[in-house]
Amino acid sequence: MTMDRRDFLGGMVAAGGLLALGSDRLFAAVAPGAPAGTLLNWDDAGTGAYAMVDRSTGGNTLVLISDGHALVIDTKSPLHGAAIRGDTEVLGGSASVTLLNTHHHGDHTGGNASFADVPSYAHTNAKPRIEAQLERYRRGGASADGSGTPLENLAPMVRRASSAWTAGLFTPEHLIGDEGTELTIGKRRVEISHFGAGHTDNDLVAMIPSLNLMHTGDLVFSGLHSFYDPNGGYSARGWIESLEQTLALCDSETVVIPGHGEVGDRSIIQAEIRYHSKLIEAVQAEIDKGTSKENAQEMSWAFMEGLEFESIRARAIGAVYDELSGG
Ligand SMILES: [Zn+2]
User: What is the 156 CA–ligand 1 centroid distance (Å)?
Assistant: First the structure.
């Protein structure tokens, strides 16, 4: 346990502290459809599995409860992380909690400080990337605003805590190599795989075979344009390869939680493969014609019709252009 973690426990945003504030007040406003007593609107994704699927609050979160243990996959923003931690206590009783980050992006790791006192896991390449995002986390914490939402009472505490945050509060302590790993959460085995660079250079896929339930992280954006981060170690070709290996873990009954967008079955993985394949094909054709990157970024093709997150379309084209042209 690092100094950071002890500091955290000394009086920051520990969930025990949240609960001690008075569960009546904190958890009074329950989102419609949510399990009783939770702040966030969880979908019951299967026996003991709860998904928080909401594109406006960052990446999708999965909480798995089994036999006195809880696994939390991804933590959204600083404010949502505090709510997720509190809700995990509600969903899991006194369950011992473990955290897994599917990759380093701030909309999946922003709430990690609320889990700084529990065992936490990420791919080894995520560590320096998470450490480098401290200022982003602090800004997110300092501007936490839950006005008019069930998170309203958490926001002042998160704002106060944020100025003292250190990178160590966000950095998972257990690093997973390229070979992946397996976690045991109560009676559930969780298989964690890394298939090389794709969305980033530290993507992890979590599969729970006994529930036939998967969290793909941002390898899948369902019904949305896909987010290319030029500084995240992406590879469009690697993304397809990672998706094909992810697809191979599924059958027709598998429930697939994407990084963003709605929960689906394996067809959302197949759609993501088509997106990147067609994007590579279309961009390569423009490169072959001598089209500039800037002009290519203005374009759209049939396979993009109807996708949301339009604001990141040009970014995806530009990233693929750079990769294909060696730029
Ligand atoms: Zn991401």
Answer: 27
